[in-house]
Amino acid sequence: MRTAKKPYKPEGGIVALARVRAKLTQRELAELSGVPQATIARIEAGSVSPKFETISRILAGAGLEMRIQLAPRDDHDEVLEARYNSLSDNEKSRADERHLSNVAMFQEAGKKAGLHKKRGS
Fold first, then answer.
1. Which CB contacts under 8 angstroms, 24+ apart, belong to 62-65?
2. How far is Cα 74 from Cα 68, in angstroms, rounded to an integer?
3. Which of 10, 45, 64, 115 is the most buried (most CB within 10 A)?
4. Cβ neighbours of residue 31 under 8 Å, at least 6 residues apart?
5. How many other CB atoms sit within 10 Å of the CB of residue 86?
6. What is the pLDDT of residues 86-116, one digit of tens each?
7. Residues 58, 29: contact at Cβ < 8 Å?
8. What three-state secondary structure class fits 51?
9. Which residues contact 20 (CB under 8 A, 6 or more apart)?
10. Interacting residues of 41 by C-beta distance below 8 A, sequence separation 6+
11. What pTM does this model have?
12. CATH code for the part of the protein at 1-67
């Protein structure tokens, strides 16, 4: 049975995407942005909701800036969550296993493509 998950926080995904695009470790991004590595880790994990100023500093450290625009609302996350919640426990387990397998596959492909640096290198 699944445990309750934290609400999705887009800030973590934005910071992680910026860091991966810049081919930086959390530690390297911390040095470049002046934001502690532990704070970057908590933002990426969705444990904290940073101020816009903090996100801007982190993105600047990765050589990026945030540009915001208004767009029609996209409810695909809610649709996927409702679909998942309608599954039986057995179906949820199979879906979770497929998800973990896909994540592992993409991580391996990222390593082969040089998108993930080894710690300390």
1. 62/18, 62/19, 62/21, 62/22, 62/24, 62/29, 62/32, 62/33, 63/22, 64/18, 64/21, 64/22
2. 15
3. 64
4. 61
5. 9
6. 999 999 999 999 988 988 898 888 888 877 6
7. yes
8. coil
9. 110, 115, 116
10. 26
11. 0.59
12. 1.10.260.40
pLDDT of amino acid 110? 81
What is the identity of the amino acid at 9?
K
Instruction: Provide the token pair at 46.
Output: 């969705």
- 11: closest CA among 58, 44, 56, 57? 44
Every domain of the chain and the residues it spans: 1-67, 74-115
**Contacts for 56 with CB less than 8 Å, ≥ 6 apart:** 65, 66
Q: Report d(CA 75, CA 85) in Å as an integer.
A: 16
DSSP, res 63: T
**For 1-121, where are the alpha helices, taking DSSP H only?**
10-21, 26-33, 37-45, 52-61, 76-85, 89-112
